[in-house]
Amino acid sequence: MSCEFRNNEDVVEYCEKNNVRFIRLWFTDVLGFLKSFAITHEELEGAMSEGMGFDGSSIKGFARIDESDMIAMPDPSTFQILPWRSGENGVARMFCDILNPDGSPYDGDPRYVLKKNLQLLSAKNLTYYLGPELEFFYFKNEHQPSTLDRGGYFDLTTLDAASNLRRDTIRTLQEMGIKVEYSHHEVAPSQHEIDLRYAEGLVMADNVMTYRIVVKEIAQQYGVYATFMPKPIMGENGSGMHTHQSLFAGEKNVFFDHNDEYYLSDIARKYIAGILRHAGEIALVTNQWVNSYKRLIPGFEAPVYICWARRNRSALVRVPLYKPGKENATRIEVRNPDPACNPYLAFSAMLAAGMAGVEGNYELPEPVEKDVYHMTDQERESLGISSLPGSLKEAIDAAEKSDLLKNALGDHIFKFLVESKKIEWDQYRTVVHPYELETYLPIL
To answer: Exposure of 250 by Cβ count < 10 A (0-12 exposed, 13-18 middle, 19+ buried)?
Structure first.
């Protein structure tokens, strides 16, 4: 059952009246993994007024041993019952903000990073809305990509073995107050998509974290494994997180302009130009894993080339066609993020890139409606179309030079992320992969 609370007293009263015995406190490390510890209802009132202390040195990207004391401060607006743990002794969850011992916000908290970027936007009387489309795979287990079906895009047949899985997942999300627009089978075998209805930036980042744990939890109940790995099957489409986004001033969508040939306002045009100019710099957070770049190759519907379009889905940014009377639905769709990113950081970086375009008066090039994959290198060069980084190493190199990304993430997270990804790349490149053994061992 969805609960909506705005203050500590309401949460405490609800737990007492409804026999909620345990409350899980959720927060996210720098790499986007959900962390949690539980408190009993007897500790709830104190936890909500003073926070709960924990050892930050054990959390990836948080504190060093000599400065490890952290405080998790629950956000009452995020209180929800966990449907899979409901019953006589219910279990709830709340997202937390991470604080220093003196009560100041902790720079290493990804949720705080997004809140800071949203506050900068709020100072301009603007609100950031997002509607991500998260794709994922169901496999028989976590050890190998053994598919459940051979279904394809939008299939509604017995080939789609996961219809009940998706139904129960959507029901659980809705019980937790997360609105779902639709779901369907995706292009690859055993690949699925559940699209969330748009919401304000911080709410949506929390929703994405919840979405991923719900998908995995319901899959486990069915005895299968769900993964958000960007490219788990060679030769098949990978999983993306196409992120629809817009800016509002009060009730007005500032991306819409009826007099523009594409119905885009000057702000929208500059915002898109910002995304295009800085896409390579921020790829380290929108596509943060070695495996992310196995998805970002031509031929599998993933965006590789940096351009925008309306109908052309090979472009990095797409602007869905305007429908009369639907001005508030005017938005852009950024197509390169994948569902294994840290949403707090990815949303922060995309917002910073877009607003750099607005504040810097970037000029938007003409849309590219021709399939970019079928162009020659010379054609793309003549149109000024560049490419996203081709590997995690290239993404690291681009990020290291980016003042925009450093400012968006803050020094603490920026430095940790770059160093962490250098270690990941070194670990990856020292492994002898099956391709090398199969190709070279018989002949060299």
So the answer is: exposed
How far is residue 233's CA from residue 295's CA, in Å, rounded to a whole number?
10
3-state secondary structure of 73: strand
C-beta of residue 350 within 8 angstroms of C-beta of residue 284: no
Per the DSSP assignment, residues forming a β-bridge with 264 are 256
pLDDT at 314: 80
Is the Cβ–Cβ distance between 304 and 298 less than 8 Å? yes
pLDDT above 50 for 65: no
CA 140-144-147 angle, to 5 degrees, is 45
CA distance 19 to 193: 35
> If you ran DSSP here, which 8-state letter would residue 363 be given?
P
The number of helix segments (H) and strand segments (E) in the chain equals: 14, 17
DSSP 130-183: EEEEEEEEEES-SSS--BS----TT--STT-TTHHHHHHHHHHHHHTT--EEEE
Cβ pair 358, 271 in contact under 8 A: yes
CA distance 38 to 52: 10
Amino acid at 155: D
pLDDT category, 66, cuts 50, 70, 90? very low
Give the domains, in start order, of the chain with CATH numbers. 8-106 (3.10.20.70), 115-434 (3.30.590.10)
d(CA 153, CA 188): 7
203-237 residue pLDDT tens: 999 999 999 999 999 999 989 999 999 999 988 88
Tokens of 424: 């990941």
Cα(335)–Cα(108) distance, rounded to whole angstroms?
27
